[in-house]
Write a structure and sequence with these properties.
The complex is a heterodimer of chains A (308) and B (191). Chain A is of the alpha+beta class and 308 residues long. Chain A contains 8 helices and 18 strands. Chain A folds into 3 domains: 105 residues, GAF domain (Beta-Lactamase); 103 residues, 2-Layer Sandwich (Beta-Lactamase), CATH 3.30.450.40; 93 residues, 2-Layer Sandwich (Beta-Lactamase). Chain A is globular and about 45 Å long. Chain A is 20% helix and 40% strand. The termini of chain A are close together. In chain A, a hairpin with a 2-residue loop joins strand 5 and strand 6. With 191 residues, chain B is an alpha/beta fold. Chain B is built from 7 helices and 5 strands. A 5-stranded parallel sheet of chain B has the order 2-1-3-4-5, with helices on both faces. The longest helix of chain B is centred in the C-terminal third of the chain and has 49 residues. The termini of chain B are far apart. Classes of the chains: A alpha+beta (308), B alpha/beta (191). At the A-B interface, helix 7 and helix 8 of A face helix 5, helix 6 and helix 7 of B.
């Protein structure tokens, strides 16, 4: 199963908090790109992670050549053409920057969007930044949209402050662009609130086709009503995965295990097998995971885990 | 008529005794001296057996023989004049099938080659059986570990854990050992 996301990285501030250095990463078989990344550091406003740090919101970079992207040659060699950087803040304090890198082959059907609220029409969202690959018609439709709060994938994520995962998106009544998505081959989407300050809201949406899902499996973990444990609210993968379902019945205590550590620290975590020999994109087995916290007003609302 | 491809490594290129014997028995023989290209040569000509005629095997040669054994094992027959026990032990450790000290006689060559090949085949069957047993033992360990994970996380009994594991493996059409590895990998994600 080839996934839309090819590389996942967590960049963390160094001790002096002047540079971002690689915390951990999932590179699959792209070991040369991994080696190039391990050598790299980014100052504030430098490279894709540094730009996201400075901007304070997610950034989508759709072309690496002649851009501020620092690893262009290695990315080109690895077939990576697009990058998304999501800064994770606790108040004004940067915890980490999560970077996703995607390829751009013919089999790729999907889109990654950053929505933000319109300063004039305060209760609508617009696409601020997006990567649509070859889906130009879908891009044109999406960029024209004013998404009201509470409607569509991004609007629902904004209204609830929670990640929203919609399977079979082309038939979902809540998804405004359903028929356009169907034409573009898009079948599934997840909207994640990444930043919500008094004035500005940012929502990430990941839309993907069945052939190239965003990740092998996506889970949404939320605190139980008592706020004592995390439970898995939703798990999704292209094919049914009974093994994953078994592990989604467990409850997670704060600080215990990878998901529990994300809850305790508010830091994104990569766990599992980093060894390329243990990773086979064609298989359904899940060997690595990125767990991304969704934080609002200093409280953890949910954790979205991308399993590869 | 023997149609085996023999790679003959002679320390003395002017010595034609062994080469003539091999040709006489009908082997297809290629004679050369040991060189840094030895491993590349083996890869290129893929002989059925390697025969050495030398005083004593060098450390480099023994290392090369171990490499050959790991990559693509071959019967190795070694005629040498060094009868030192240490040298013999090192040669055997380097997977030499038969080490003959001062025993190069035309009439014995064919049977010595047969002994080397038979010993090699027997050793290979033992190695395969050992590998299979190790793999089974490793599978057993992985299955026990996976069962323990399911018992701990799902409050299963040992029977329930085993049946769950077996059902997951059957649904995916993979072995129990492979499924156990998947369960362990999955639990590692949440560690």
């Amino acid at each position: 199963m080839k996934t839309f996301i090819k590389v996942t990285e967590i960049w963390i501030p160094d001790k002096e908090r002047t540079q971002l250095e690689l915390g951990s990463g999932l590179y699959g078989g792209l070991q040369d790109f991994k080696a190039a990344s391990e050598q790299q550091q980014f100052a504030y406003n430098e490279g894709l992670p540094g730009k996201a740090w400075a901007a304070g919101h997610p950034i989508v970079l759709t072309k690496f050549e002649h851009s501020y992207f620092k690893r262009t040659a290695a990315a080109k060699k690895a077939g990576l053409t697009c990058g998304i950087a999501i800064p994770v803040f606790s108040g004004d304090f940067l915890m980490a920057v999560v970077v996703f890198l995607c390829g751009d082959d013919d089999e790729h059907a999907g889109a990654i969007e950053v929505w933000c609220n319109n300063p004039v029409f305060a209760s609508t969202l617009n696409v601020m930044d997006g990567y649509y690959g070859t889906r130009q018609h879908f891009e044109a439709i999406s960029r024209q949209l004013n998404m009201p709060k509470g409607q569509g994938l991004a609007g629902l994520a904004w209204a609830t402050g929670m990640p929203i995962l919609i399977d079979d998106i082309s038939k979902a009544a809540t998804f405004i662009r359903a028929s356009d998505a169907q034409q573009a081959g898009i079948s599934m989407g997840i909207g994640i609130p990444v930043s919500d300050t008094l004035r500005q809201t940012y929502i990430m949406t990941f839309l993907s086709a069945k052939a190239t899902p965003i990740a092998k499996r996506i889970q949404i973990w939320i605190p139980d009503p008592q706020g004592k444990q995390l439970i898995c609210q939703q798990g999704y993968s292209k094919n049914s995965n009974d093994l994953a379902k078994i592990f989604e019945t467990i409850t997670v205590d704060k600080g215990v295990g990878a998901i529990g550590r994300v809850w305790l620290t508010g830091m994104p975590v990569i766990s599992g097998n980093h060894d390329p020999s243990g990773y086979n994109p064609e298989l359904d087995n899940l060997s690595s995971m990125l767990a991304l916290p969704v934080i609002a007003k200093g409280r953890l609302k949910a954790i979205v885990s991308f399993l590869f | 008529m023997n149609m085996l491809n023999v790679l003959l490594i002679e320390s003395d290129p002017d010595n034609t005794l062994l080469e003539n014997s091999l040709n006489g028995y009908g082997f297809k023989c290629l004679k050369t001296q040991y060189s840094p290209m030895f491993l590349a040569l083996i890869k290129e000509i893929t002989p059925d057996i390697i025969i050495f005629n030398l005083d004593t095997p060098s450390k480099k040669l023994l290392t090369d023989l171990q490499t050959i054994h790991q990559q693509s094992a071959l019967p190795v027959l070694m005629f040498a004049s060094d009868g030192n026990v240490d040298t013999i032990n090192q040669a055997i450790k380097a997977n030499v099938s038969a080490y003959i000290v001062d025993g190069l006689e035309h009439k014995r060559i064919n049977s010595l080659i047969n002994v080397a090949i038979a010993r090699f085949k027997y050793q290979q069957s033992l190695n395969n059986a050992l590998e299979e047993a190790c793999a089974k033992l490793e599978d057993r360990k992985q299955i026990d570990r996976a069962k323990a994970i399911l018992i701990k996380t799902q409050n299963f009994t040992e029977d329930e854990a085993y049946h769950t594991l077996r059902k997951l493996a059957m649904d995916r059409n993979i072995t129990l050992g492979e499924m156990a590895k998947n369960v362990i990998a999955m639990s590692e994600l949440f560690k």
